[in-house]
Amino acid sequence: MTIALHTPASPNSPDTGLERDVNRYDTAYRTWLREAVRTVQADGNRSADTHLLTVPLPAEWDIDLYLKDESTHPTGSLKHRLARSLFLYALCNGWVRPGRPVIEASSGSTAVSEAYFAKLIGVPFIAVMARATARSKVELIEFHGGTCHLVDNPCEVYGVSARLAAETGGHYMDQFTYAERATDWRGNSNIADSIFRQLAQERHPEPSWVVAAAGTGGTSATLARYVHYTQRATGICVADPENSAFFDGWLHQSPAATTHTGSRIEGIGRQRVEPSFIPGAVDRMMRVPDAASVATVHVLQRLLGRKCGASTGTNVWAAFKLVSEMRAAGERGSVVTLLCDPGERYLDKYYSSPWLAGQGIDVAPYQQRIEHFLLTGELS
What we know:
Rossmann fold; alpha/beta; 10 strands; six-stranded mixed beta sheet
């Protein structure tokens, strides 16, 4: 780095001290930056688009339900897209520097993906997470070279992350603030554009609804903005789990809404309304009981032959409800939602009878309601 201060052109020129020229161009850093950006972009070029799966429903309903399978990303979740966008945003803003750590507050999946990208560009990574985070996620972060800093209270992750960044000279990525702005929602590579391109040859190419749960709020913001920007009639529904502030914040138009207990559905639901949640862009919200979310993934295992994380269950329960309403109204069409991550990450939680019993979660009544819906179209 060089700093050059302008000097008068000749001894006769006035030296007022007002004219200055500070040059901070660092050749080594800019070379590193170009390579880092190229490396992150190359990851996107190597990744084929994720699949749009169909959930089997009776043909006579003339309603199609799709799952955008985000579990096929290299790091196994929807958060891979977010992490790539956050790294590109931070790199191009000059926030990530060689040798300095990236720190993130996370419930797990974003940290897994960010650890992957940090390793790609050769910077240290520290994930600040609640101690209750699934052990499999901790192992994945460590597999990608990251370090986990666990806290007892989920609300502490923000302050601890900022403190660690200040102490280490690193960068606090802050997904909960930057998720909605890091993704180019008008571009041709975001999740919304992908969904509509994949639906183009389907019998109902413009869905009646797209459902997405909120963790940062960034995905729902991208979907909603894209739908409005491309002038579509598709509704955007956000499904919210128990113990999350998003629903009350949206219902009462209160960005200060909070809850006293953290979400049991990893990856979604927050104790505060995060800055990346854009309530004005959303058409509808549903609060989904945790037992309904877990019951849904158990039914999906039978329907799809695979395990999904409980956030997918939250999404699909809301989608089932929308399909039921369409069926009751005699409407045809399609509904799209997201398969966020694989259930194998949660074998000791949502697929564990002792854990469910310890949490007081009884899935049987909701499983019965889903089975009734699949036969009749009624989700009572």
